[in-house]
Amino acid sequence: PAARAALAALLEHGAALLRSRGAAIDAAPLTDHDRDALVALYIVYGRPAVPVRNDQLQRIPVGWELLDGWRDPIQGALPSLGRIELRAPDGRRAPIGTGFLVAPELVMTARHVADDLRPEGAPPPRPGDRIDPAVGAQIDWRAEADNPDAFARFRIVELTWAHPEEDVALLRLSREGAEPAHARMPLPLPLCSAAPAQLDGALVFTGGYPVGGGEGALSWQRLQDIFPGVLGTKRLQPGKLLAPAWSAHRLQHDCSTLGGSSGAPLFLLERHRPLVIGVHVAGAPFTANVAAPTWRMRDALPRELLHTGAPGHGGIGFAPDPLGAGGA
């Protein structure tokens, strides 16, 4: 009840600001409380973060009823997203980002997330480096709110590849020591192979494990008010690509993201299934979120990591642009 009352007060303050200032919202300086209220209003009513439990969407928000029509294909993709975390010797787990399976035992994420997979004071790992077991690096394909007994954890053992220009990396998993022992890997997600012909204003969504933090971030209490439940658990965050702020080399979107969302896939909601078109790598309050386009990956990846179509070859797969190929 206290949390609901705090959120209601924050939303009312944001609504009052909009009523009094209208389009001139930033004509006068905004206090931290003003900014918190506007962010809360935006997240709750504009760009929500939908909890996921048992790989099922919970409580589709008002204004986003169209997600119901996409429920089955979206829920088919959610199991392939996992929380990258560091496990301390006492069992405590610290979330550091999001990753998604792109080939058997290969996880794509942001390079800066991979940089954190090291002992304190050690240099960041380089492509080909084994991850020091002492840091307890792992991915949990579940990590859901109100579902602490559901987990599927696999150890991260290697930084396999990093893009020479983009903030993107591949991590290798081990099936040894999986928790529980019978845990299964999810299905790999294919990546979009070419820049779609038309993206301005396209519906997209990302999914990940928002935990907060970063420059200009809201306070922990504010985050708890806005993101009900447990921070750092799996969420779906719908939004749109910003027009004309996208190109063959950069995607900008307005999905609600926080620290912990880095490395999450950005899906295009078109045609028959969601298709990964980017990797979320950066964002800041009151500006845009940035994703690295997947078509920037294909030529940079070593051939041995790509799916060649040969029987038994389980490399990274690329799918055609569902809207018709555009310029790259």
Automatic annotation (TrEMBL):
One Pfam family hit = Trypsin_2
Transmembrane intervals: none
For this protein, the record's Gene3D superfamilies field holds: Trypsin-like serine proteases
Q: What is this protein called?
A: Serine protease
Tell me the organism's taxonomic lineage.
Answer: Bacteria, Pseudomonadati, Myxococcota, Polyangia, Polyangiales
